[in-house]
Design goal:
Order of helices and strands of chain A: EEEEEEEEEEEE
Oligomer: heterodimer
Strand content of chain B: over 45%
Helix content of chain A: under 10%
Radius of gyration of chain A: 16 Å
Helix content of chain B: under 10%
Largest interface: A-B, 39 and 37 residues
């Protein structure tokens, strides 16, 4: 058996208690900010108009298989430079809200500039889900990271076309 | 074995735990505990040790034609049999440190995802109320 990891993403209207997305997408392999709240739609089919923002994306890690402990979670924008008029805002949180294009005030970290992962936001974990209350700094059974929430915010000076490629990183220790 | 988004990767290094009685515990490629099928081999060495941790003399990573050893007798390290020492403190207790640091990268805009795994071995001790750690990281 293996230690397994995959990225997941919640989309849709907030639901349940604690709140989470209506749809939980598994095995997500990209984080394309766009003008729709889903995983499947190509970003080219749902572009963000300059002066507007993407829908907030709520992604998280899922840990299954065999491991003893996951710890020391960190999240950051670690490579690549966004162009003029583009601001990447983000946070690590257990709080889900129905994604929208209004500037999300809960995303309190300006992640526009790439930094070393060691300076990233601390990530906690829970066996129930990213939305679970009282997450802990270590995970000793199958479980999830908190939400890694991001939104690309644009001004009228943002240039048309694809943004530059940027890298977001989730790092953790496992044994 | 590590599995990331459905892609399986063999462990680059397997460990050997050597004990004072001359016996060793060798991590298998399937990395499953001898005691619990939902746990990995390190569970048998550290979390529910099948031999007392006090009897663990050295912990070795083997792979890619190299060996990396940490001694839990005197805290020295070895790379391919060449010893070196990081510490100058007068430690007498050496508690094993072992973990893998996983880094998952979203390459936004490229629909790519990258994964790197760094193996960390070392030891920690408490001296006059202060905790010290000495580790090496192998990529």
């Amino acid at each position: 058996m293996a230690a397994t990891f995959e990225f997941n993403e919640d989309n849709g209207t907030q639901t349940g208690s604690p709140l989470k997305g209506t749809t939980r997408n598994t095995a997500v392999t990209q984080v394309n900010w766009k003008n729709t709240d889903d995983v499947a739609t190509a970003y080219s089919s749902s572009p963000i108009t300059a002066g507007n923002n993407s829908y907030t994306k709520y992604q998280f890690g899922k840990f299954t298989g065999t491991f003893n402990q996951v710890s020391a979670g960190l999240f950051a924008h670690t490579a690549g430079t966004l162009g003029t008029g583009l601001t990447l805002k983000g946070t690590v949180s257990s709080t889900y809200a129905t994604p929208a294009t209004t500037a999300n005030a809960s995303l309190s970290t300006d992640m526009t500039t790439a930094i070393a992962i060691a300076s990233g936001l601390a990530v906690s974990f829970h066996t129930t889900g990213p939305e679970a209350a009282s997450p802990t700094s270590t995970l000793s059974a199958v479980g999830f990271s908190q939400y890694l929430a991001t939104q690309l915010q644009t001004s009228g000076s943002a240039g048309a076309g694809d943004t530059a490629t940027v890298t977001l990183t989730l790092q953790y220790n496992e044994n | 074995m590590i599995e990331v988004n459905g892609q399986k990767y063999a462990l680059k290094y397997l460990f050997e735990a050597r004990y004072s009685d001359g016996n060793s515990y060798l991590q298998g490629a399937d990395d499953i505990s001898l005691q619990r099928e939902d746990k990995n081999a390190f569970y048998d060495v550290f979390y529910a040790p099948i031999k007392p941790l006090e009897e663990l003399e050295s912990f070795i990573l083997i792979g890619d034609s190299h060996t990396y050893l940490v001694s839990l007798i005197d805290g020295h390290f070895e790379v391919d049999g060449i010893p070196f020492r990081q510490h100058e403190i007068a430690a007498t207790e050496f508690r094993l440190i072992f973990y893998k640091t996983h880094r998952h990268d979203f390459n936004q805009g490229g629909d790519e995802i990258g994964h790197t795994c760094t193996y960390v071995i070392g030891w920690q001790t408490t001296l006059e109320g202060k905790n010290y750690e000495y580790k090496i990281a192998i990529e």
